[in-house]
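ok here's Golgi apparatus membrane protein TVP23 homolog:
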Amino acid sequence: RHPLATFFHLFFRVSAIITYLFCDWFSNSFVACFVTILLLLSFDFWSVKNVTGRLLVGLRWWNQIDEDGKSHWVFEAKRVPTIAASTEAEARIFWLGLIICPVIWTVFFFSTLFSLKLKWLALVIAGISLQTANLYGYIHCKLGGQKSISRVTSRFFVTAGAPKRQTRRISEDRTEEHGKTGTR
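and the structure:
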């Protein structure tokens, strides 16, 4: 059981939404409200991506850049043989929070757009982006982007050794070509 992880999974999300709704009541400073909400959204993104996703549902995702500078997205799911009732409840809370909050931020987007409060539009777009990125990553993990760490690392080392082998083969080919031209 992970009650602390479950609490923080919802705390930052709900705090960002409540702060967005009632910030004008407590502060006249747009910048203070903007920064506070953006920090809450950032804390939420980090905690969901790096902590609560691993603990509550056994999923994680990240971006890996290889030696060639190519970006590779890695989606991983931990295989759990039996799920206890408490873990199942935590997983349900995780998925509900992950799905409902982007919908709420989308509603905020349209209400901000139609009420012409355009100064809040950038913040709402940031909220939608951060929430949707986590949702996309975890859905991808859940539906089949599963790769184990051993397969990822073995593939990484195989591809890291491949350019060396190709370079060696190319240099041997050039040596054979030079040998043939020298014997003419």
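+1. The first helix runs from residue 3 to 26.
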